[in-house]
Write a structure and sequence with these properties.
This protein is an alpha/beta fold. 24% of the residues lie in helices and 24% in strands. The chain contains 10 helices and 15 strands. Strands 3, 4, 5, 6, 7, 14 and 15 form a 7-stranded mixed beta sheet that branches. α4 packs across α5 and α4 packs across α9. It is globular and about 60 Å long. It binds zinc ion (ZN) (2 copies). One zinc ion binds next to loops.
């Protein structure tokens, strides 16, 4: 299901998928998540994107062909492919082993055709081996929404027993609450409206704060402040209070892309050594860790499933913001 131009419609096309080139594998796609970042491809927001392009960076499938120079992977293995679509091994971050910051990083579904298709050809260094306990539809959303929240939390410096607040209970947030709770943090879910409270508790939150009736910074300070606040919100305005809810040396980590500059109170940052940070997704190995941890702890997203041919409908549903909570294409 490809897009021929920025803002163009999805088109069902038939094409040949060649043998993988050096360092590449070919995946037979079983399921692919529909992520908000697919709009970068569909609407042509990513600078320099070339068309036609097939979106999709939450790919769960089976290796169908492996280049002769690729060690480790074999035809028939179940694998995943996420946002990180391979790294160069030669730029300064790669030479330091920090592959997620590769200056020549490829992005699945942007720099090469992604998972809204029967097959994907991708660099082998982007691939994750699948946890055998997970089925493809359950695994797909973990390869972007899952890894982004799990990997940012496990690298946040928070330790078991620390207070971790999750802002927003949507596609990313409902996974983040589960990861936080299962990682042993005192988990606070923060969202708009009383109706999200029971769901937050069911996902493992110990405390729920409703921002329509409560002051979230004050409520967090009653708990001693949050050591980490992980924001999945897209409204920069809705983040303005967050630094005031942090504990001393606490960290606000932004993983949802806000719609503008983030405003934060300077004195709590200066005097209390509080920080505001971002986090990208992770490498193939980070995806593999995410899949394994999710299988171990029974963590899943709630999904609405569409057949691949209904990609346009699935994409519109995701963009409407009404999906509960992730949308997945099934082949
Ligand atoms: Zn994504
Ligand atoms: Zn590199």
């Amino acid at each position: 299901m490809q897009v021929s131009a920025a803002g163009g419609a999805f088109e069902l096309v038939q094409k040949q998928f060649p043998e993988p080139g050096p360092g590449q594998v070919r995946i037979r796609v079983q399921a692919c998540g529909v992520c908000h970042s697919d709009s970068l491809t569909k609407e042509g927001i990513w600078p320099g994107i070339q068309y036609p392009r097939v979106p999709g960076h939450e790919v769960a499938g089976v290796l169908d062909a492996v280049a002769a120079d690729v060690p480790l992977f074999k035809v028939g293995q179940r694998v995943g492919l996420g946002w990180h679509g391979g790294h160069c091994n030669y730029c300064p971050p790669c030479r330091r082993g920090d592959f997620i910051l590769c200056e020549n990083q490829l992005v699945s579904g942007i720099n090469f055709d992604g998972g809204y298709a029967d097959y994907v050809i991708a660099p082998a260094n982007a691939i994750a081996l699948m946890a055998p306990e997970l089925d493809d539809v359950d695994a797909a959303p973990l390869l972007c929404a899952g890894i982004t929240t799990f990997n940012s939390l496990r690298n946040s410096g928070a330790r078991p027993g620390d207070t971790v607040a999750i802002l927003g209970i949507g596609g990313l947030g409902h996974l983040a609450v589960q990861y936080a709770a299962k990682s042993g943090y005192r988990t606070v879910a923060i969202a708009r409206g009383q109706d999200k409270g029971p769901l937050a508790k069911q996902l493992g939150a110990h405390v729920y704060i409703d921002t329509t009736t409560q002051d979230p910074a004050k409520e967090l300070q009653k708990l001693g402040g949050a050591n980490v606040i992980l924001s999945t919100l897209t409204s920069a305005k809705a983040l303005e209070w967050a630094v005031d809810g942090l504990a001393l040396a606490g960290k606000l980590i932004v993983v949802g892309a806000p719609d503008g500059p983030i405003t934060a109170s300077p004195f709590p940052m200066l005097l209390g050594r509080r920080t505001v940070a971002g986090w990208p997704s992770g490498t193939g190995m980070d995806s593999e860790d995410t899949l394994k941890f999710s299988a171990l702890q029974g963590i899943k997203s709630m999904n609405e499933v569409y057949p691949l041919e209904k990609a346009a409908e699935a994409y519109d549903r995701m963009m409407s913001g009404k999906a509960r909570f992730r949308v997945v294409l099934k082949n």
